[in-house]
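To illustrate the input format used throughout this study, we show a single complete record. The first block contains the structure-token representation of the backbone; no residue identities are included at this stage. The design step must infer an amino acid for every position from geometry alone.
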């Protein structure tokens, strides 16, 4: 357990890069102890060391596509930091780009669905009992603008993120009376290692030109929305799907 037992605990998946990492830092700066759950052990060690001076945090090895791995990470968080009242499920991949639906490989389909959608369910099924036993809390799932509108040549990702939106709504309806709020954020194009890897300079320029706001978002701008959804200020907000997208889905 954390030595300060009044400190709230946040459990963050995909916590060692991009949006998850920026949000984990914001939770720490807001006074939470933070479980950094991620598949990447090297980034985990680096992130834990980088954040150690901000507040109590612990890297936990976790592959969200593996149910037993998620169960172990959740258990390790409870044992080391304490039960969590805030969750941000950010772990995800985008998979292969540029393949039409009929040309998508079965391997890519199952990999993306296994991490982005089944992985989200693994997280919820192990996180919710902890929260039910400890007075409730708030869960934020990371969907995407691809969870509310289509994106050609990216169908496994789009299907998975639409699934995350449905899963979020179901869990919100099921647990609202038991003190757990469940919402999703839908980031637009955010400047992270994932988006950088998927963009050549021409695509980068085109996306900025097409966007209403004229730039990519920062991971911290998604994190700020997550922190608010987990705060007392959002106490009547549940089952909502919040685009953080510079008006990408407003058109
Ligand atoms: N960057 C964007 O433009 C954008 C837009 C919309 C939605 N998103 C979503 O935001 C989330 C974070 O994306 P990002 O851009 O920060 O990506 P990122 O690649 O920078 O970070 C993703 C993190 O998830 C971890 N991860 C990957 N597979 C995992 C697994 N099986 N188990 C546990 N951890 C795993 C990685 O190790 C990494 O630390 C994803 O769910 C992504 O789909 C991103």
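Output of the design step:
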């Amino acid at each position: 357990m954390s030595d300060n037992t009044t400190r709230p605990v946040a459990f963050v998946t995909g916590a060692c890069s991009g949006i998850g990492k920026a949000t984990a830092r914001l939770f720490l700066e807001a006074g939470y102890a933070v479980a950094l759950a991620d598949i990447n052990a090297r980034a985990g060690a680096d992130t834990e060391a980088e954040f150690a001076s901000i507040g109590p945090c612990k890297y936990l090895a976790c592959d969200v596509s593996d149910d037993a791995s998620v169960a172990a990470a959740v258990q390790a968080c409870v044992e080391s930091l304490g039960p969590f009242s805030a969750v941000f499920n950010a772990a995800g991949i985008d998979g292969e780009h540029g393949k039409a639906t009929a040309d998508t490989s079965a391997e890519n389909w199952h990999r993306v669905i296994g991490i982005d959608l089944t992985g989200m369910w693994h997280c919820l099924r192990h996180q919710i009992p902890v929260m039910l036993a400890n007075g409730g809390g708030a869960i934020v799932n990371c969907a995407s603008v691809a969870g509310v509108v289509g994106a050609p040549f990216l169908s496994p990702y789009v299907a998975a993120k639409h699934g995350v939106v449905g899963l979020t709504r179901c869990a919100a309806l099921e647990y609202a009376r038991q003190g757990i709020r469940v919402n999703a954020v839908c980031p637009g194009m955010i400047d992270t290692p994932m988006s950088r890897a998927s963009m050549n300079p021409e695509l980068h320029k085109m996306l900025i030109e097409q966007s209403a706001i004229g730039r990519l978002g920062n991971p911290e701008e998604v994190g700020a929305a997550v922190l608010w959804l987990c705060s007392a200020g959002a106490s009547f907000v549940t089952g909502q799907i919040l685009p953080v997208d510079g008006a990408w889905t407003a058109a």
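Structural context for interpreting the output: The chain has a mean pLDDT of 97. The pocket of nicotinamide-adenine-dinucleotide is lined by residues 13-14, 16-20, 38-40, 43, 62-65, 90-93, 115, 119, 142, 144, 187, 189-190, 192-195 (CB under 6 Å).
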